[in-house]
Amino acid sequence: MTEITAMSGQTVGSRGYSGYECARVFDYDHELAETGIGTVAGEFLRRYWHPVALTSEVGDLPKEIRVLGENLILFRTTVGEIGLVHRHCPHRRASLAYGRCEKNGIRCCYHGWLFAPDGEILETPGEASGPGPAADVRARVRLGAYPVKEYSGLVFAYLGPSDKMPNFPFYDSFQTPDIIKRPYRADYNCNWLQVLDAIMDPIHTTFLHSLNGEVQFSEAMKEIGELQIFERGLQFLGTNTRRVGDFVWIRVNELVLPNFTQAGSAFTADGTRVHYFGRSSFTRWVVPVDDHHSMVLAWANFGDRGDPDKYNNQEGCELIEQGEVMDRTYEERQRRPGDAEAVEGMGSISDHQGENLMPTDRGVSLYRRKIRQLARNLARGEEPIQPWQFPGQPIRTYGQDTILFLPMKDEDDRKYLKNLTQAVMKMQFDAEDMPLDTRDSHIISELERIEQDGFE
User: Fold this and answer.
1) Which residues pair with 74 in a beta bridge?
2) Which of 24, 105, 234, 268 falls between 20 and 30 A from 347, CA-CA?
3) Has residue 42 been placed in a domain?
């Protein structure tokens, strides 16, 4: 009788049941999954800017938010300045969720102390105005506050040490010509790694979004293409290259550590017509709320190089984000699972020790290893690198779809597809130092040339 080895390490018969032998408690990856203050990954993440809310969520009342395990208050002054502060007033610990937004800051409901968006105590009413305890407190004490930046419908914050604050990262996809950006948010009831893993797992599109029921994106995604990973500093690019008749479809999923993600279009490209350097369906961050919850804050991108404008609504954003709308019955989710069902079904924190990673999981393995290395280096005193960019230029990104008319030349098409992908990506990397206003047109003309000349 053929024998198999259970995950418990005990050998059992392949024709028998092995529930008992496989029943064991696995642990999760504490280094990468835990993101609170003082944790290895938490301190690493706090060295980067993250979106923390939609601009539309910040009204005339304070908003309670939770990010990286920390309870915070987001507010807007009556003159439009946004602040992000610790929840509790440093006087008697009242919650500033019940504070009042004023011209100069937020005022505590309990004793009226007024705080500027940067945490300075501006007023301590009811206390003596001259020299004395109140003046001493105003000089010595601050309400904890974090720098914020509002951009195109998203509110970003830096939650790390003030003397280590990097420049705000500006990516080329922030201003792709003729693209309309729509901010959206998606909440997940699980650890951030489970949500982030999917971007470096291009093959899941074939199964979760194509073969496991109805096709959620396009028919051609049923095909398992040729997978390759390109690692470039903090940037990881996972390509899946498919043959669709006489066309070759190169689709690129992108991760810039720690949590910036892009991919090809969800609905524009289907592998059946030429498409040159189409850009991402979303520009997206996966942000830990705490160890058991995470949120995606993003723009969905609409236009000729993004997705069709008919998806420019809340339901369309949800379809782009995870293949299905978010609010569905349990039966609907069982019959047509999307990303939320896949990642939340692992539990609020996946038992990583129970995984059996395969060659198709190489992108997941590589990016996790890189985060672990950078986070451990930080714990030893080495500050992590930031996304690389040319001075005065946006950070270059590559999440995309490229579809070329290149009929099959010989029987060894798999090798041909891999070599073509490597050549196309190298051509784009070689154009990286071009000014942004000429880079895209150069890439597109080079793709046209490859198609016209043929690729050997």
Assistant:
1) 63, 84
2) 234
3) no
